[in-house]
Amino acid sequence: MIFIDTNVLVYAMVGQDPAKMRRARALLAELRQAEAGVLSLQVLRELASVLYRKSGWTDAQVRKAVEEVMAFPCVRESMATLKRGMALKARHGLQFYDALVVAAAAEAGCDTVYSEDMGDGAVYGGVRVVNPFAG
């Protein structure tokens, strides 16, 4: 299973870079087809926030976009997710919300996170970060 970080979803929907938009859309289609994508409520909240602030879309458009990606399974975050995230932040120096993404990915049984934010190839708590836009 592959955990999808917010930036992949944002690029797929409102990316300023056409190449990244195409890549993100292709990745999401592949993950849907393979039933291999996972996300968290945090990612959905961040997506909605970005779309409200930066897309110029109406409330209905934002709601529709977020509901479309709700088709991916959503890991249930818990107090353990928070504790794991805090430990990852302390151990690896990650940004707090990035550490929570990695913690949620680990709890969902994902071995990979697709993200542009955390260092392509880095491994945190057994979860490898892959920047799908690198190279």
Topology, number of strands? 6
Counting H and I runs of at least 4 residues, what is the number of helices?
6
Unreliable segments (pLDDT under 50, ≥5 consecutive)?
Answer: none
Helix content: 55-70%
Distance between the termini: 22 Å
Q: Give the structural class.
A: alpha/beta
Give the mean pLDDT: 96
Write structural notes for this entry.
The chain has a 6-stranded mixed sheet with strand order 3-2-1-4-6-5. The protein has 135 residues and is of the alpha/beta class. β5 and β6 form a beta hairpin. The protein is 57% helix and 13% strand. It has a single domain, classed as 5'-nuclease (Rossmann fold), CATH 3.40.50.1010. The mean pLDDT is 96. α3 packs antiparallel against α4. The chain has 6 helices and 6 strands; from the N terminus they run βααβααβααβββ.
What's this model, at a glance?
This protein has 135 residues and is of the alpha/beta class. It contains six helices and six strands, in the order E-H-H-E-H-H-E-H-H-E-E-E.
Which key phrases capture this entry?
135 residues, alpha/beta, Rossmann fold, 6-stranded mixed sheet, 6 helices, 57% helix, 13% strand, globular
Topology:
Elements: E1 2-4, H1 6-14, H2 18-34, E2 37-40, H3 41-54, H4 59-69, E3 74-75, H5 79-92, H6 96-107, E4 112-114, E5 123-124, E6 127-130
